[in-house]
Design goal:
This protein is an alpha+beta fold and about 550 residues long. The chain is built from 17 helices and 19 strands. Strands 1, 7, 8, 9, 10, 11, 14, 15, 16, 17, 18 and 19 form a twelve-stranded antiparallel beta sheet that branches. Strands 4-3-2-5-6 form a five-stranded mixed beta sheet, sandwiched between helices. Strands 12-13 form a two-stranded antiparallel sheet. The two termini are about 40 Å apart.
Length: about 550
């Protein structure tokens, strides 16, 4: 078989395959492809790239430390290989098995297990690299076949250690009833144009375009923050920006972009709705007075009223702060919520399993939904509670997360957490709080809506959004608090350190909060009351989510 491949003329292969084979030395080809995939900043694609690299690393270690030392086969004689095909430098290691083939198969299978679409792109390149090892005279066919098998096995082994997204159970188990809305009929979507994907430079594609294509009969109401205001980064205050005074315009209809910019929310599908939905937003342009524009929350209330009239659902396109505001309105109105990821981080959508707007659109059309929990905090003496879908915190945690997210893409999460901790420690001071009746000195108090996964002081993601629990984490002060916290972060052992404590609770009481302390929830920052109570409203919100498989 080797001589048949090596001696046969393959049209077009001579200028390509030797170079391709050389580019795969030391895995450089696959690392370059992985870097390009990661640069897309698309979570499924980045996960696929990471899984491919991890599989490649395991396959390379297996081949170079065990396999090649077990079978010491000489390299093929290249006398019958045309000179133009031969590698510039022939390998001097043993021939069996092929390390290039193992790396190629490991990367391709690893990518495919996480993202079949990207796997289909990478697979032909991997097959070409494996074939090139025979074509250039570097390996026998059996070397390539066994190397490819080892690479595929390494990818499967990595999946056994770290399951792919598709292997995990549904992110929110309780299924619930929600109306099916074919072509989006009855869905009223409020889009915050100040949220991540629409507020960056250079501008990204309009996130509403794929939604309009999938749900052409939905109504779209646009919320636009004032252009002269500096937008706070989404992870530091998406909802705070949203609640500022803003201009709203009608960007509604069948997805053709024919909505009129009138300063009020409206729809092309029913001409009378524009006046009804925006009747109390201020005078018309003919009156000569500047119209009073509603806040995001007020616009969401009007959209919810419109959705009730249509017998449909409320939709929201924006970041986590926008989604949090919409979740509270939808729960209060008894409406299902369609979350259409349109922000920078989209924590709630990703934890729910909604990685693209297509996922949400498919669930809306089919009427597939799940019930999720809402967390809330209530100040002493307050008539109502404030709900949140992601996180609540007091102390230096909000600033730590903001800095960590800024650096995570440059040097990795561990380095980013250390840098963030060091920077925060220069200015922050521990707080003296009474937590569930016990006085504590704390750097930060974190209460997540449902249990988070991830190592360190900054939890990463949730798997079950209906577990009825608050994920409470505290970083203590104590003696030499700065040194203790920084050393724990450097060692990566915050969860196993006496500096750090965590618990899963259904209720949390916080008293004796110092005056001037700020609290943060889902990106919004506001002054903390002197005392408050945190608890859960189990399965309070219906959210569209496609069923697994």
């Amino acid at each position: 078989m080797f001589h048949a491949v090596a001696s046969r003329h393959w049209p077009g292969a001579e200028p390509v395959l030797p170079r391709l084979s050389h580019s795969a030395n030391h895995g450089l080809l696959w690392l370059g492809i992985a870097a390009g995939m990661a640069a897309t900043k698309h979570r499924p694609t980045r996960r696929a790239a990471l899984r491919g690299v991890a599989s490649l690393a395991l396959a390379s270690a297996t081949v170079n430390t065990v396999a090649k030392r077990s079978v010491r086969r000489n390299r093929p004689l290249v006398d019958g290989v045309p000179m133009i095909r031969r590698l510039r430098r022939q390998p001097i290691t043993t021939s069996f098995p092929s390390g290039h083939s193992a790396s190629a198969a490991a990367f391709a299978v690893g990518v495919a297990l996480e993202s079949p679409r990207w796997g289909a792109v990478v697979a032909p390149i991997a097959a070409s690299v494996a074939f090139s090892r025979i074509y250039t005279g570097a390996h026998y066919p059996s070397d390539v076949l066994v190397g490819s098998a080892i690479g595929a096995g390494a990818a499967l082994a990595v999946r056994g250690l770290v399951p792919t997204r598709s292997q995990l159970p549904s992110a929110a188990r309780p299924r619930t009833d929600a109306p099916a809305l074919p072509r989006g009929r009855g869905l009223v979507v409020v889009a915050n144009s100040g949220s991540g994907a629409t507020s960056v430079w250079p501008p990204r594609a309009d996130p509403l375009d794929p939604i309009r294509e999938a749900l052409p009969e939905a109504e779209f109401w646009s919320f636009t923050p004032e252009p002269d205001r500096d937008l706070v980064p989404e992870d530091a205050g998406d909802r705070a920006d949203a609640d500022a005074d803003a201009d709203t315009n009608a960007d509604t209809g069948t997805g053709t972009g024919t909505g009129a910019e009138t300063g009020t929310a409206g729809t092309d599908t029913e001409p009378g709705t524009a006046t009804e939905a925006g009747s109390d937003t201020g005078a018309s342009a003919d009156s000569g007075r500047q119209p009073e524009t509603p806040s995001l929350t007020e616009l969401l209330e009007k959209a919810a009223q419109r959705a009730r009239e249509l017998g449909g659902a409320l939709g929201v396109c924006g970041g986590d702060g926008t989604v949090s505001a919409a979740a509270e309105v939808a729960a209060r109105a008894g409406l299902p919520l369609a979350v259409l990821p349109g922000g920078t981080l989209n924590h709630f959508a990703y934890d729910l399993g909604l990685e693209t707007v297509e996922d949400s659109c498919r669930a809306v059309t089919a009427g597939q939904a799940v019930a999720v929990d809402l967390a809330r905090f209530t100040a002493d003496g307050a008539a109502s509670s404030t709900h949140y879908v992601n996180t609540f915190s007091i102390g230096c945690y909000p600033e730590l997360v903001r800095i960590r997210e800024r650096w995570a893409g440059r040097g990795g999460s561990w380095a980013a957490e250390v840098l963030a901790t060091a920077q925060v420690l220069r200015t922050a001071e521990p707080l003296d709080l009474v937590i569930n009746g016990r006085r504590r000195s704390v750097w930060m108090l974190f209460a997540g809506n449902c249990s988070y996964r991830g190592v360190g002081s900054a939890p990463a993601s949730r798997h079950d959004l209906a577990d009825g629990l608050l994920d409470v984490r505290i970083v203590h002060g104590g003696r030499l608090p700065r040194a203790r916290l920084l050393s724990a972060a450097l060692l990566g052992v915050l969860r196993r350190s006496p500096v750090h404590a965590e618990a899963r609770l259904r209720r949390l009481r916080v008293d004796n909060i110092p005056e001037g302390t700020a609290l943060a929830y889902d990106g919004e920052v506001e002054p903390a009351p002197r005392a408050l109570t945190l608890d859960k409203v189990n399965e309070a919100l219906r959210v569209y989510r496609p069923r697994a498989g």
